[in-house]
Amino acid sequence: MTRLEDRPLTEVLHPQTAKALSRHLGLETVGDLLEHLPRRYLPRGELTSFAELREGQEVSLISRVLSVHTRSLHTRRGSIAEVTVTDQLDPAGTGPAPAPDTAAARLDGLAGTDIGVAPADPGQTMTLSFFNAWTAAKDLHPGDHVMFSGKVSEYRGRLTLTNPHYAVLTDLAAAADPQAAQAPIPVYPATAKYTTDRIAAAVAAVLDGTDLTQLEDPVPDALRRRHRLMPIAAAYEAAHRPDDEEQPHRGLRTFRYREALILQTVLARRAHRWESRRTSAHPAREDGLLAAFDAALPFRRTDGQVRVGEEIAADLAGTRPMNRLLQGDVGSGKTLVALRAMLQVADAGAQAALLAPTEVLAGQHLRSLTAALGDLAAPTGPVHVALLSASQPAAAKRQTLLDIATGAAQIVVGTHALLGEQVIFENLGLVVVDEQHRFGVAQRHALSGSDQAPAHRLVMTATPIPRSVAMTVFGDLETSVLDELPAGRREVATHVVSLAAHPGWEQRIWQRAREEAQAGHQVFVVVPTVEDGGPARPGTGAPLQSVEGLSARLAGMPELAGVRIGILHGRVPGEEKTRIMQEMAAGRIDLLVATTVIEVGVDVPNATLMVIMDADRLGISTLHQLRGRIGRGSLPGTCLLVTEQEEDGPSMQRLHAVASTRDGFALSLADLEQRREGDILGASQSGTHSTLKTLSVLRHPQIIAQARADARELVAEDPELSRWPDLAAAVERADSDEASRYLERG
Question: Pairing between strand 79-86 and 58-72?
Fold first, then answer.
């Protein structure tokens, strides 16, 4: 049986209306229309101030008719109705608050209509010209309150609404129904060809013509009572036809909780299924590889590293497979924590895999792990760290695959190549996923060990994320946070360099680069594109800086004579990337011009200067990551955010936010606040629409936290949700729908 939500609008509305809703708004079903919620509400009895109108706005405004006059046109046949309206109430200041007269409301477009008011006018009257004079004169009368909808434009120095729709709001309905006199008027997201009043009429037809109690209501009765939520049918009525100003808020709260509960129940069931499996325990040994590694550490671990290490060690020692999220700021030591976990697993005779998103990062991890292990990873040492990547020579790849299959390689670092069917581990005990947001759901699960003994999983994020986002994106994972930086990290000074205001400063940038190179330090220069001819800068049309163009220009500068310049970008072959990064780390390259391929994982302790050209093209998280590539050793660093934007340009706020703090937790929140909700959850990357329509992971953390607790309670009580069939059906759809599977990626 078809759910009411899935019934086509053609079955409940006039075919032409259903066709128009589909064509103009993409609404196909009853559920689509019901979930097309008003974007705001106009208070009934309060008129819209004309002074608030701005050119280009799509507006719906309520005004009072003062007079209606009809006259003949001079240049062609026909007549025109001139209607004068005001944004002031009647002389008494109040009057019968009008309510919609559904019989009289005109929901048709009125061609050839102009509404004019001088922009400098305080906005008390406007003159409306209707070229369908007979219709307007018949519908509009002095004293009527009328809602007009259209786009504000300017004509001959006066603001104009071209071809607005209108709906007459009379006081007759108010006399018959005093409560209706207080009802707010919903204003819907609309288009020029399908306006808010026409949408309201369609919604009213669905509300009146269907039995909303047949709608699926996923929220169990006990939770609805506990949180004082509305039944879903009442919530739709409250949102679309509210009796008072409070009802829309109650309806929205119900919708938000419903969305949060469905998503959190999806994640709670996944966590329950994972936790119900059993795996091999890998307890720590007092005299093993991990103990030897800790004894050789030349520094003291931070309190956070100790605390998180104990959490992970306890998970690995148990038979319930670990499923943990490790997040921390740039440079907080996540890799050290992960390496200690891998050594604990190796002590137990199992293998660990570290999955990296790029070959550059995989190669960097190999070098970092090998260097950190010291003699333990020497050719004759007890730990064999292997690398597997797509660009490896065939012979090297065959040897690595053999070492993985025989267990000779205790730690395997790789890219997507690790996910191949030909990769067979002898005994995979731990999977570490670095920069989780680069991998899809299927890829996270591809490395899961055997069905009998699934591998423990540790997911590391590039930068911190707010708790509400973590609960939504990684809701099926336990979370550990590294909230302090290791001692000895040097300060990095960050400055915004506006070449629009100070074009001469660019020369000083390259002079500073020469000074760093002459002092024996390394310099990173990051640009947005690989080659010339790419996208242009918004507003100026000038091309963005490119690796090829800028590196050639720098090579010819007298200021940089003798400075060894290298380039790195995504098109460079894998082996060449590795060679370039090794040369950079060894000090044989002074200045590296690169794309954001160096964003994560690159470790060159001697690098002291980061120059980011066209920095306004990059997001806060990326800028913070790039800055984290310097100041990693004993030397202080400088990061220059170079932009052609004017000081009041739209991206300058973002750049100044990065320059003002190195607190990754604060910057992550600022970054997410500037994004659309779908971007936060990954919808823009997956090519799907966000499943969140009313819930915001940033603005509604309390609802998410409550729903998470409730979902875990429900799943613990009944993992199959058989007691709540509506919730079970909604969760099943969300869990199997591609539009929600992206929630598992980070």
Answer: antiparallel
Q: What is the CATH number of domain 492-674?
A: 3.40.50.300
Counted residue by residue, the chain has a size of 746
* Side-by-side strand order, sheet with 591-594: 492-498, 637-643, 607-612, 522-526, 591-594, 565-568
Q: pLDDT band at 451, cuts 50/70/90?
A: low
Token code pair at residue 222: 């006990």
**Local structure of 17: helix, strand or coil:** helix
DSSP 395-407: HHHHHHHHHHHHT
**pLDDT band at residue 614, thresholds of 50, 70 and 90?**
very high
Do the beta carbons of residue 548 and residue 567 sit within 8 Å? yes
Asked whether the beta carbons of 113 and 128 are under 8 A apart, the reply is yes
d(CA 240, CA 77): 43
Long-range contacts of 19-27 (CB under 8 A, 24+ apart): 20/194, 20/198, 21/194, 21/199, 21/202, 24/191, 24/193, 24/194, 25/189, 25/190, 25/191, 25/194, 25/199
What SS3 string covers 509-562? HHHHHHHHHHCCCEEEEECCECCCCCCECCCCCCECCEHHHHHHHHHCCHHHCC
Tokens of 690: 């966000």
Q: How do residues 228-270 score in pLDDT, each as one tens digit?
A: 999 999 999 999 999 988 999 999 999 999 999 999 999 999 8
Domain covering 42-187, topology = OB fold (Dihydrolipoamide Acetyltransferase, E2P) (2.40.50)
> What are 319-372's pLDDT values in tens digits?
999 999 898 887 788 999 999 999 999 999 999 999 988 887 888 899 889 999
CA-CA distance, 362 to 406, in Å (whole number)? 22
CATH code for the domain defined by 289-482:
3.40.50.300
Q: Is the pLDDT of residue 704 over 80?
A: yes
pLDDT for res 734: 86
pLDDT digits (tens, 9 = 90+) for 364-415: 899 889 999 999 999 999 999 999 988 888 999 999 999 999 999 999 999 8
Using DSSP, state whether 600 is helix, strand or coil: coil
From the list 517, 490, 485, 486, the residue with the least C-alpha distance to 631 is 490
Look at residue 215 and give its three-state secondary structure: coil
For 562-578, what is the mean pLDDT?
Answer: 88
CA–CA gap between residue 137 and residue 145 (Å, rounded): 15
d(CA 647, CA 645): 6
Segments of the chain assigned to CATH 3.40.50.300: 289-482, 492-674
Q: Tell me the mean pLDDT in the region 17-35.
A: 96
- Nearest CA-CA partner of 643 in 655, 628, 653: 655
Q: Is 315 helix (H, G, I), strand (E, B) or coil?
A: helix
Overall pTM surpassing 0.85 (yes/no): no
Q: Are 230 and 250 in contact (CB under 8 A)?
A: yes
Percent of the chain with pLDDT over 90: 48
Whether 573 shows a pLDDT value over 80: the answer reads yes
Residue 323 per-residue DSSP state: E
Q: Which of 444, 446, 401, 408 is nearest to 424 (CA)?
A: 401
CATH code 2.40.50 region(s) in the chain? 42-187
Q: What separation in angstroms does the CA of 648 have from each of 153, 484, 651, 657, 675?
A: 26, 34, 8, 14, 20
Nearest alpha-carbon partner for 355 in 420, 287, 286 = 420
| 440 has a pLDDT exceeding 80 | no
Q: How many CB atoms lie within 10 A of CB 467?
A: 15
- Answer for the pair 80, 129: CB distance below 8 angstroms, yes or no: yes
